[in-house]
Protein 1
Amino acid sequence: MKDNTLNLVLSAKNNRNTIILATELDSGQQIIINNNQVDNSNKEILLAAQSIINQGKSDVVNIDSKRWFINISLPPLRLVTVGAVHIAQPLAEIATISGYEVTIIDPRAAFANNKRFPNINILNEWPEEALINFNIDNRTAVVTLTHDPKLDDSALHAALKSDAFYIGSLGSKITHNARIARLKIASFSDNEIKRIHGPVGLPIGARSPQEIAISIMSQIIFTRNNFENSGTV
């Protein structure tokens, strides 16, 4: 791989952009395809490789009797959890095992610290501050766990204005109905509010923090898989 090609790939990863490196296997010719570079020379490759691109997989495709290896580089999946509560501990562990980069947001350092969350990215800020430059994209899930509108609502506002593939909020149906009322006052539409999974998690009868974390992560994975099958990566 040439230096300039490698620099483009690394830059795309650093900026959380999807990048496609197409290599013609006989000649070694390489073409970079990313969000900013789609022209007539690579539209044919994009069309032929669309199915594997949608799945985020690398594979070989045949185009006009030529064989191209399509190498897909996607940004890592992320989970942003608002609230360093008991459920957040097993959720962070399960999400990490599942291949997600986890960030805990909670201004309360007594709860959000590396002793309770070892090897996890912690932001001891209010969500409205922490999420300003976070770039919530379509490979990011956001879960609020505090039940406290001062923390949860601002995070939900940011998530609903973003491309997050999953948004979930902990709380009973009564709590969620109150949340919906506040979001409507904040001018969010019914369709936007419907993006929130609340009460959060798959209905598996979960009771303990560990079981609730499993139900949440299962719903995130289920949503993500359906998201990919819809043709979006």
Protein 2
Amino acid sequence: MSTRSIALANQKGGVGKTTTAVSLAACLAERGKRTLLLDLDPQANATSALGLEKLSGGSVYKALLGGARLADSIRPSGYDNLEIIPSEVDLAVAEVDVARTENYLQRLRLALMPIHDANQYEFLLVDCPPSLGILTMNGLAAVDRVLVPLQCEYFALEGLAVIMRVLKQIKESGANPVLDLEGIVMTMFDGRTNLSQQVVNEVRGHFGEKVFQTVIPRTVRLGEAPSFGKPITAYDTHSQAAVAYRALTAELLAQPWPSPAGPASEKATAAVETPVPTAG
């Protein structure tokens, strides 16, 4: 069994990134896939979304600085097949401390290596902060693939161009030569508006098969779930959002690993290198 490592990243907040990380982790675990969720965001939303406390000293922080084994931070999530490395507010200072270390972009990769090499997990999901700081860069340098949650709104493509450019720079700089785009998932889809469908169509026009067919709806129940400390699959298992995330999980599992580079990847590169129009 080899571990599939995927970072969920988008420098813009409020796009459903953490919701997607937690929901995807829960769905993979539900299907019997041994999954580890790493909360790399100092806001610790993925931690609280699973009903766990933000304990001082329990995050990846000490391991990033070489002062602890990351495996010692793994905690049970309360759900079968799902474990988590939680976050804490103190992780925010890592942006400064890690920048002072050698190989500062690869501190997380080094810390994760023993866990990754042990092959005890089928999936490793990293929930990155909503920024392009040191922590996010470490997350991107430590995984094989990146999944980008993208909200169905007017300026979505502008933000997507930025994250795609960063992925390309990390890969070409040598920080992570194998890094590739796993896919783009459209979130916060509102079927009552023409704009949502226009944005989906435009993103698919640029990125082709790299965009998952499943779109995640904007629902009240999905927004409520984190406040109850449960993933949507446990909070309202038959809800529209839970059904959507299970469909997204099925798509992810159906994709080959590693995903072969094809025309869609070439379109993605072209979209990064040229001005990207916004949906109108």
